[in-house]
Write a structure and sequence with these properties.
Elements lengths: L1 E8 L6 E4 L3 E6 L6 E2 L11 E6 L2 E6 L6 E3 L2 E3 L10 E2 L6 E3 L5 E4 L2 E8 L31 H4 L13 H9 L1 H9 L17 E9 L4 E7 L5 E7 L7 H14 L10 E7 L2 E7 L3 E3 H7 L6 H20 L1 E7 L2 E6 L11 E6 L2 E6 L4 H7 L21 H4 L6 H17 L7 H11 L5 H10 L5 H4 L5 H10 L9 H11 L4 H14 L30 E5 L4 E13 L2 H8 L1 H17 L6 E7 L2 E6 L2 H13 L8 E12 L5 E2 L1 H10 L6 E2 L13 E5 H6 L2 H4 L3 E6 L8 E7 L1
Parallel strand pairs: 3-4, 8-9, 27-30
Antiparallel strand pairs: 1-2, 1-12, 3-5, 5-6, 6-10, 7-8, 7-11, 11-12, 13-14, 14-15, 15-17, 16-17, 18-21, 19-20, 21-22, 23-25, 24-26, 24-27, 25-26, 27-28, 29-31, 30-32, 31-32
Subcellular location: Membrane
GO molecular function: adenylate cyclase activity; ATP binding; protein serine/threonine kinase activity
Membrane topology: Single-pass membrane protein
Length: 729
C-alpha cells in the first residue's frame, strides 16, 4: 500500500513524495515543511498538514489565511471566501483524501494517488479511476460482512478486521477476552511466528489507556507477578503491518537494564495483541509528582533524573540485532523511545528509595508506525504532545536520540517546576473540554509551532543556573530541512546527541551547584504528606467548603457529585492519613480548575463531594479533568452530572430532591439497571461520568456525542426510574 503526492503545477512542479508507512507531511513557508515555499505570499507559514497511514490520507488546514482547496472545495481559511468560491460545509477544515484528488494552494497543484496492490504500483504515477471493491471482508470475531466498514485497508489480501460492535464489546470488557486467551495456557501461533505465551491468572486492572488496558497478573503455578498490556487495532490489519509491528517489538525485547521495564513476551489472538511485562510495585512519576504537590526540590529530583538517564543512555547506545530478510540479520546501535512522559516512568520501591524504570519502550509508537491505528478516529493521538519537540510532527519518521533528549528534558522541567514547557496546552484542553471534543494532531501542532519554550529559570528562579542552562540547551528547537543526516547533525549540536551526553552535562551541573546525585542514607525519598492544617479532613457529616449563593426559594443549577468506588474499603486499606491527603488533593483540583470561576457551592459528605455550578459546561469540564488525570494512581473515581431545581437554605446550603437524586445516580450499580436493551454495554464500575437527560440537554451538541446510552435505573428513595448516559475513560 502506498500514498503518492505529485506536484503537477507551481514553483515546486515535478516534486514527488511516496509513503508506504505512516508519516506526516507539512506544506507551508517554514523551512521544515516537506514543500517549503518561503516566497509565496499566498501560502501561510504552516498552511496544511497531511496525516498519512496508507492507504488513508487526511488533510487539515492549519488556520491558514486562504485555506486549502480539495477538488475545488475550500477547507478552512481565516479570510472569508470570495464570490463563487465553494466552502466546505460547516466550515470544515479537514477531509479524507481519495485516489485522484487534487489539492490547490495558490499556484501550487498537487495530485494524490493511493495504491493498494504493490504489484500494480506505477512509479510514474498514473491517475487511474478508483477501484471497485472485489474482496468481501468478514469480522474475525463475529463473522458478519464488514466490507464497507473495513474500507480500503480491508481490500488488502490477507487482512483481518474486527467490526465496531465487537471492538466495543472488547473495549468494555477486555478482561473477558484476555482471560479466555490466557487460560488456554498456550496462545495460538499464527503466521507472524508470535512466541508461545504460558498461562497467567489475572488479579486486577492497573490502568486503562487510550489504546487498551494494563492488568496485574500472576504466572500460573508460580508467585511471579507480571503486568499484561492489551491493545486492539482500530483498523483492518494485514500480514505486512503485523510483521512490521512484530519486528519492532522483537527489537525492543532486547533491552535489558535495571532502569528499563523488562519486556518478557507477547502474543496475538482473535485480533487482540497482548504483552507480558515486568511488574512494578509502585507508581508512575506523574502520580508521584501529584502526591508531592506537582514538583520536587532539586535535591530530591537529581537521583531520579540520573536514574532515568541511565536507562535511556543504555537504550540509545545498545547494540541491537534485527533480521532484515529471511535469516539474514544485521546489527545497529540504539533505540529511540519516542513517547517519554511522566506516566511512562515507573517508580519501584527498593530499600526505602524510588528506582525509576522507563516503560512502554516503543510499544505504542510501534503500533502506530506499523499502521495499526486509525488517523480518522477523533482524538486518536498516540503519545503526549506536551513533551514533543517540533520535529516530532515535522520529521515524524526520522526521530533520533536528540528527540528523546528534548522529551525527557521536558519531563525534568515539569519535575522541577510543576508546569509544562509551553503555554497553550492547558488552554487548548480546557477549550476542547468545554466544546466536548478531544484535540487532534493539527491543534497540538499549532501550540507547538507557535509557543516557544518558557525558560525554566523564569518559572522557578531557585533552580541553580548551571542546571537551568543544561535543561534549556536540551530543550532547544529550530526549523530543520527534510534531510535525515542534516537533522541528526543539527540536533546533536543544538541539544545533546544522546541521553549519555545529557547525563554527563547534568552531573557537572549538579556538582557545580553542590547537589548530591545519590540517595541520602538517612533521608529516603518518600511522597510528601502535606501539613494537616492545609488539608480538609475526612468527615462523616456534611462540611460546606464554599458557598457564594444567596438563600432563595429555588433556582436551576448544574450538580456534579464525585466519590470513590468502594470508598469504605479504600479507607481501611490506605488509612486515614492517606485518605486525608486524597480529599485535600480533590479539593485543590476543584478550586484550581478553570471552571472554579463558575463554582457557586462546594461541600463534602460521607457520600462524596457535591460541586454546584451556574453553567453545565463548567461542571462537565471539571468532571473530564478527573477522568483525564487521576488524583491518585490508586483512586477510582465515579461522577454524576445532573441539571435541576434546588432550594438554597438559610446558611447557603443546597437542598432538595434533585441533590439526593444526583448522589443516588453517582452510586448506581449494574444490579440497579432495568432490563437493559441488547445494544447497551455493561456499566463501568468506576472512571465514569453518568449524566441525566436534563444534563445532556444543557450540554453542547459536541459534548453530547461523548456519551453513550447506559439504560434505565432504579434509584433508592425514588419511585420513578431514571434514564442515564455514560462517558468513560
Amino acid at each position: 500500500m502506498h500514498v503518492a503526492i505529485t506536484v503537477t503545477d507551481g514553483p515546486a512542479k515535478g516534486q514527488q513524495f511516496t509513503f508506504d508507512e505512516p508519516d506526516r507531511f507539512l506544506f507551508g513557508r517554514t523551512a521544515d515543511a516537506h514543500i517549503s515555499l518561503p516566497n509565496d505570499p499566498y501560502v501561510s507559514r504552516q498552511h496544511f498538514l497531511l496525516e498519512i497511514s496508507p492507504p488513508e490520507c487526511k488533510i487539515t488546514d492549519l488556520q491558514s489565511k486562504n485555506g486549502v482547496f480539495v477538488n475545488g472545495i475550500r477547507y478552512g481559511g481565516r479570510k472569508p471566501p470570495g464570490f463563487g468560491i465553494k466552502q466546505a460545509p460547516k466550515h470544515a477544515k479537514e477531509t479524507l483524501l481519495n485516489d485522484g484528488d487534487e489539492i490547490i494552494v495558490g499556484e501550487t497543484h498537487l495530485r494524490i494517488q493511493i495504491q493498494l496492490d504493490e504489484s500494480r504500483w506505477n512509479e510514474t504515477v498514473s491517475y487511474a479511476p478508483k477501484r471497485q471493491k472485489k474482496r468481501t471482508v468478514q469480522c474475525v470475531r463475529c463473522g458478519k460482512d464488514v466490507t464497507d466498514e473495513a474500507g480500503a485497508r480491508g481490500q488488502v489480501e490477507g487482512s483481518e478486521y474486527i467490526c465496531k460492535t465487537c471492538r466495543k464489546k472488547v473495549a468494555s470488557k477486555p478482561l473477558d477476552l484476555l482471560n479466555k486467551l490466557l487460560n488456554e495456557a498456550v496462545a495460538k501461533k499464527d503466521s507472524s511466528d508470535a512466541p508461545v505465551i504460558e498461562g497467567y491468572q489475572i488479579e486486577e486492572a492497573i490502568e486503562r489507556g487510550g489504546m487498551g488496558m494494563v492488568y496485574k497478573a500472576k504466572k500460573t503455578g508460580t508467585e511471579t507477578l507480571v503486568a499484561i498490556k492489551t491493545m486492539l487495532p482500530s483498523v483492518a490489519t494485514n500480514p505486512d503491518n503485523i510483521r512490521a509491528f512484530q519486528r519492532e517489538i522483537d527489537v525492543n525485547r532486547q533491552l535489558k537494564h535495571p532502569n528499563i521495564v523488562q519486556f518478557l513476551d507477547h502474543g496475538r489472538s482473535q485480533g487482540l495483541f497482548y504483552f507480558v511485562l515486568e511488574f512494578i510495585d509502585g507508581m508512575n512519576l506523574g502520580a508521584f509528582l501529584e502526591n508531592n504537590g506537582g514538583s520536587l526540590p532539586v535535591a530530591e529530583a537529581a537521583p531520579l533524573m540520573l536514574g532515568i538517564l541511565d536507562g535511556l543512555t543504555y537504550a540509545h547506545r545498545a547494540a541491537i540485532a534485527t533480521r532484515v530478510s529471511g535469516k539474514k540479520s544485521t546489527t545497529f546501535t540504539g533505540i529511540v523511545h519516542r513517547d517519554l512522559k511522566p506516566q511512562n516512568v515507573l517508580l519501584a520501591r527498593r530499600n526505602h528509595h524510588w528506582i525509576p524504570k522507563l516503560s512502554d519502550f516503543g510499544i505504542s509508537k510501534s503500533f502506530e508506525s506499523a499502521g495499526l491505528t486509525n488517523i480518522t478516529a477523533p482524538g486518536e493521538v498516540l503519545g503526549t504532545p506536551m513533551y514533543w519537540p517540533r520535529e516530532q510532527i515535522t520529521h515524524y519518521k526520522y526521530l533520533n536520540p536528540a528527540t528523546d533528549v528534548f522529551s525527557i528534558a521536558a519531563v525534568f522541567y515539569e519535575m522541577l517546576t510543576g508546569t509544562w514547557i509551553r503555554k497553550g496546552f492547558q488552554e487548548l484542553l480546557d477549550d476542547c473540554a468545554l466544546k466536548g471534543y478531544t484535540p487532534v494532531v493539527s491543534e497540538y501542532m499549532s501550540v507547538i509551532m507557535n509557543n516557544p519554550i518558557i525558560p525554566i529559570h523564569e518559572v522557578n528562579p531557585d533552580i541553580p543556573k548551571p542546571l537551568a542552562s543544561v535543561i534549556e540547551r536540551a530543550l532547544r528547537e529550530t526549523e530543520i530541512p527534510h534531510d535525515k543526516t542534516q537533522m541528526r547533525n543539527i540536533l546533536a549540536k543544538l541539544r545533546y546527541p544522546d541521553a549519555g551526553a545529557f547525563r554527563e552535562a547534568l552531573i557537572q551541573a549538579f556538582e557545580a551547584a553542590g547537589i548530591s546525585t545519590t540517595y541520602p542514607e538517612s533521608e529516603p525519598i518518600t511522597p510528601e504528606v502535606p501539613a494537616k492544617s492545609s488539608q480538609p479532613q475526612p468527615v462523616s457529616d456534611a462540611t460546606i467548603m464554599q458557598t457564594s449563593i444567596t438563600p432563595t426559594s429555588s433556582r436551576q443549577v448544574a450538580l456534579l457529585v464525585l466519590d470513590l468506588e468502594k470508598s469504605s474499603e479504600y479507607i481501611r486499606e490506605v488509612g486515614d492519613t492517606h485518605f486525608s491527603v486524597l480529599i485535600g488533593d480533590i479539593y485543590k483540583r476543584v478550586k484550581s480548575h478553570p471552571s472554579a470561576s463558575d463554582l457557586i457551592f462546594l461541600k463534602t459528605t460521607g457520600d462524596g463531594f457535591l460541586a454546584v455550578f451556574s453553567k453545565i459546561s463548567a461542571a462537565f469540564s471539571l468532571a473530564l479533568s478527573f477522568l483525564k488525570t487521576r488524583v491518585h494512581h490508586d483512586a477510582h473515581i465515579r461522577l454524576a452530572l445532573h441539571w435541576g431545581t434546588v432550594k438554597i437554605g438559610p446558611e447557603g446550603d443546597v437542598l432538595g430532591a434533585e441533590v439526593h437524586r444526583a448522589f443516588r445516580i453517582e452510586n448506581v450499580q449494574r444490579e440497579d439497571q432495568i432490563e437493559p436493551p441488547e445494544y447497551v454495554l455493561p456499566l463501568p464500575p468506576s472512571q465514569r461520568i453518568l449524566a441525566t437527560a436534563p444534563a445532556l440537554q444543557h450540554l453542547s451538541p459536541d459534548a453530547q456525542t461523548k456519551f453513550r446510552p447506559a439504560g434505565k435505573f432504579r434509584l433508592k428513595g425514588f419511585d420513578d426510574t431514571c434514564e442515564l448516559w455514560v462517558l468513560q475513560t
